[in-house]
Each structure stands twice: as structure tokens, then as C-alpha cells.
Amino acid sequence: MNHILIAEENRESRIAMANLFIEAGYNVTVTTTAAGVLQGIMKKTANVLLLGSSFDELAAVELVPLLKKCCRNLNIILVSNEASLPVIRKLRNEGIFYHLLKPVLPEDREELKQVVACAFHNPKSCYC
After folding, report:
1. Which of 8, 106, 110, 113 has the fewest other C-beta atoms within 10 Å?
2. Is the torsion defined by CA of 72, 73, 74, 76 positive or negative?
3. Residue 53's closest CA among 3, 4, 90?
4. d(Cα 23, Cα 78) in Å, to the nearest integer?
5. Given its phi and psi angles, is residue 76 left (phi above 0), alpha (psi -120 to 50 degrees) or beta?
6. So where are the chain's domains?
7. What is the DSSP letter of 103?
8. pTM score above 0.70
């Protein structure tokens, strides 16, 4: 089953992304806590993680290495307008699947949908 975990502090962004993927037929869970992310990953319910730049007072750059240790093949998509180029490089080295800016326009939402679809077609996405 295609299950997406959305970890985003911003309520409007979280709701918009959740609605986008619910309408597209995905199972969606949302969280604003690191504990919620870890629970979703450890229970192996999430195949793809949409991660904001920070939440629960943790920066994505701090959280991604831990998440990848819990599930090395988890496809993490960073959705952030705030990350600098050095931070993006570091996260890519840590193994994020993709980085994109928060969707604003319809074509931005289409890019997000395409990236998620690609993440689900990545053969290693379901094996932790």
C-alpha cells in the first residue's frame, strides 16, 4: 500500500499536502513531532516521508541521519523553502530522495505529485 507520512510544522502546508495526496488515492498520515515520524518509520507504515525543514524544534539536517539509520531505504523528500545550498548538499549526502520548494502554484503541486510517484516506483522504497 502506498503510504505517505507528512512531517510539517506549518498547518496550512501540512493540510494542503495531505489533501493533495488523499485526493490522489494515497494513504496519508500527518505529524508535527519527531516521535510521530519515528513511530511511522519503525512500524514500517510509511513508504515515503515528506519532511519540512524543521519541526518539533529539530532541523531536518539533524533528523535525516537518524531516520536513515532506522530505515536506510526510506525515501525522504525534503519540502522546504528555507534550506540553504550547503544544507541541501549535506542532506543529499545523507540520502534524501529529493528536495523541492513548498508548492504554491498548481504546477508546483504537480511536481510534488510526480516526485512522490517516482519515490514509490523506486524499488528499494518499501524495504527497511
Report:
1. 106
2. positive
3. 90
4. 21
5. beta
6. 3-121
7. P
8. yes
Residue 84's pLDDT is 83
3-121 has CATH 3.40.50.2300 classification? yes
Does pLDDT of 54 surpass 60? Answer: yes
C-alpha grid cell for residue 23?
Answer: 485526493
CB-based contacts of 71, cutoff 8 Å, min separation 6: 41, 44, 128
67-125 pLDDT, tens digit per residue, is 998 888 899 999 988 778 888 899 899 989 999 998 888 888 999 999 999 999 875 54
Taking every pair of Cα atoms in the chain, the longest distance, rounded to a whole number of angstroms, is 35
